[in-house]
Amino acid sequence: MLSEQEALAIIKSRLSNRRLQHSLQVAVEARELAVNFGVSPQKAYLTGILHDYAKGMPASELLNIATVNNLLEHEVDRLVPDLLHAPVGAFLLKTELGIDDEEILQAVKCHTLGSLHMSALDKIIYLADMIEPGRDFPGLERLKCLAWRNLDEGMLFGLESTIKYCLDQQRIIHPLTIEVRNHFLKEVKFIGC
User: Fold this and answer.
1) Short-list 122, 123, 180, CA closest to 150
2) How far is CA 137 from its chain centroid?
3) Which of the residue ranges 76-80, 122-126, 135-139 would you say has the lowest mean pLDDT?
4) Residue 1 in this model has a pLDDT that exceeds 90
5) 186 CB contacts (<8 Å, ≥6 apart)?
6) Which residues contact 178 (CB under 8 A, 6 or more apart)?
7) Domains (ranges, CATH) in the chain?
């Protein structure tokens, strides 16, 4: 397994300074959330550093890697290839860096759209990505409060914030985000199917 210093050196060579600062802030936030929720703070920090491994890659390259390696799951993946930075990042962490920790790979893979089967680490990385100190959007303080109180409540609010943003910006909403939002709504509100 990579050390934090090794991961940081790798990420420094791949990301812009702004994106590097984001990853460092996500790592710190993830470590703190992990302590709060009884998850390995070292694993959360390392995952936070690595979560945007494929961010900044050209859309054509993301799409090519995803196509060749059967990572496409929906037509929206082709329409908004930047969303592929999460699954492509997980794939590249495994193939380029030899990371074989499935918890880390899964958390990287689902940090953008979520997943129907999210571990505590998955939720922590998703939320840390949204609430790190460099972020600023309506509802951020409410999201922070919810994330620190209950991961599922944080996920529901975070997913709904993302959906609202996409609607306001007239952006395509990935169907998985809607499906995951509905899953967490049922979890939080105890609504039966």
Assistant:
1) 123
2) 17
3) 135-139
4) no
5) 192, 193
6) 163
7) 4-189 (1.10.3210.10)
The secondary structure of residue 115, as a DSSP letter, is -
**Mind listing the pLDDT tens digit for each residue in 41-88?**
999 999 999 999 999 999 999 999 999 999 999 999 999 999 999 999
Q: Where are the alpha helices (DSSP H) in the chain?
A: 4-14, 17-37, 41-50, 59-68, 75-79, 85-97, 102-109, 120-131, 140-149, 151-168, 175-189
Question: What pLDDT is attached to residue 141?
Answer: 96
Q: Which two tokens stand for residue 150?
A: 């209950």
Rounded to whole angstroms, the Cα distance separating 131 from 193 reads 31
So what's the pLDDT on residue 191? 56
Tokens of 96: 């380029």
Q: How far is CA 74 from the centre of its chain?
A: 18
Does the model's pTM come out above 0.90?
yes
Residue 146 Cα distances to 79, 143, 171, angstroms: 32, 5, 26
- 9 CB burial (10 A radius; 0-12, 13-18, 19+): exposed
